[in-house]
Amino acid sequence: MPQLHEWQYECLQIWARNGYRGIVNAVTGSGKTVLALVAVKHLEIISDRELRVKIVVPQTFLASQWKDEIRRVLGVKSADIGMYSGNHKDADRKFMIYVVNSARYSLARHILSDINNGLAVFLIADECHHYGSAENNRIFDFYKVIDKNAPYYALGLSATPEIVNFKAISIPLGREIYSYDLGMALRDNIISRFILFSIMLNFTSDESAEYEGLSLDISKSLTTLKKMFPELGGLPSSLFFAHLQRLARQNGEAARVAATALTLIYKRRTLCHMAAERPLCAVSIVNALPPHTRIILFCERIQAAGKLYQELSAQYPGQAGLYHSKMSDKARQDVLERYKHGMLRLLICCKALDEGLNIPSTDAGIIVSTSLSARQRIQRLGRMLRHSKEIKRIYYLYIGESSEDSELVLGLKPLENNVPLIALGCAEGTFLHPEYERLRKIVLKYGSSRGYTAELLNALSHNIDLALVRGDFLMSEPDCRENLRSCGKVAERNYWTSVLYVVLARLGKL
After folding, report:
1. Cα–Cα dist 178/15, whole Å
2. d(CA 400, CA 391)
């Protein structure tokens, strides 16, 4: 059995005190799966009945990951692990993994059958924030009829506190018993250290005019709705839009206004996601990072991902892969395998890659476009922050003229004292930072005083540009000198010499 982190040990104690039921909100990469599997071993010890473990996941690839982890952590044979998804439906086994689309009309029945046959049941609901909807909530129908003293145990796992219709899952799974956020995981050295880049982009003049027009129309629609339903005014964004969607499915004037507002909001988001500056900036970041850097680029729209993939494939033939929900399962799996095994260096994807997928050996993440969901941002960080010794780089691109500005680092405030945050502007692929320009002038003046030729000064200026986008100018002087001593190639020595100059200028030593 793996050694537990302190938070996992504490969480399991609370779970036991809560009657072996509860929901755990823990950041991606912190060890939720291991927590659940150690809980299985604990239940096997304390239960006086044979245990059946039911695991429900939102997507097929997560089922495969759970199977691998059960084998790795618990040493269970493949023959004792069943899968229930689509056309593949194994007969009942000790461990059964269900994809929710297939579990809606069968999981509850299977749980009831096990309990009625004198077995104990442990239900693990992975990414449980998905199961509050009316359709998905059918997996919990068994809870309405089982004896309250039945040998039934439950653990809900999530990486977000934003759960729509929380009561629908908290009744069968239990209350939220533990929260472990990104700041805590960073403090405990469970996830990698990282630098966060906040990069502000601008609309083109045509995009700006269209955005303002849509915003005005949205404001009119929402004002009308809030007069009809004053309670809308106090809701957080996730619950607000869920309420808006429910209103739009009804009849009458309110439904019409809600539907209009949703359509306008979708158009405005699309405009924002497809802004012309996004791919230009993303490609510039890729170009500025070292050529061995493994990068995931996240987009909100398949069209935007496809365009970015074409541009990067042209510049880096054979190094880029595309992953999105409209591709076949086989094509997606092939791309992931090639990325995992180092055959691809760049992975361009959409929201299909957000939750749960284990992606090792990733050095940088570029959030080319993002929704207003803090959940997605935290999930995406988790894809890259699984623990390693290397400092990761996370780049958030946002349009300064849009509502993204105020929502950009929602959920990341506890990190302010632990994570360097570099705020940049970017126009036509050129990165801007007023204070950094002061350092550049100091370094170039120093180079001129040492008799650098125009060619050397241009090379020095180029390396200064790279150090800004890579964040290396924040490095300590001893670490920078160590990198300079250890590098071999002339280009690397020139780069780290340039970085050292910037570091010394930042420290007032140049």
Report:
1. 9
2. 27
3-state secondary structure of 209: helix
Note whether 194 and 385 are within 8 A (CB).
yes
The backbone torsions φ and ψ at residue 492, rounded to the nearest 5 degrees and listed phi first, read -65, -40
d(CA 442, CA 420): 23
DSSP 426-473: EETTEEE-HHHHHHHHHHHHHHHHTT--HHHHHHHHHHHHHHHHHTGG
| pLDDT one-digit tens code per residue, 219-268 | 999 999 888 888 888 777 767 888 888 888 888 898 899 999 999 999 99
pLDDT tens readout for residues 445-488 = 999 999 999 999 999 999 999 999 999 999 999 999 999 999 88
How far apart are the C-alpha atoms of 505 and 510, rounded to whole Å? 5
Q: Write the Ramachandran bin of 86: left for phi over 0, alpha for psi from -120 to 50, otherwise beta.
A: left
Domain regions of the chain by residue span:
6-180, 194-202+276-431, 205-273, 435-506
AA letter at 476: S
Q: What is the CATH number of domain 6-180?
A: 3.40.50.300
As a whole number of angstroms, the distance between CA 57 and CA 168 comes to 17
pLDDT in tens, 82-135: 999 888 888 889 999 999 998 998 999 999 999 999 999 999 999 998 898 889
Dihedral sign from CA coordinates of 105, 111, 114, 116 = negative
Q: Under CATH, which number does the domain 194-202+276-431 receive?
A: 3.40.50.300
Whole-structure pTM value = 0.84
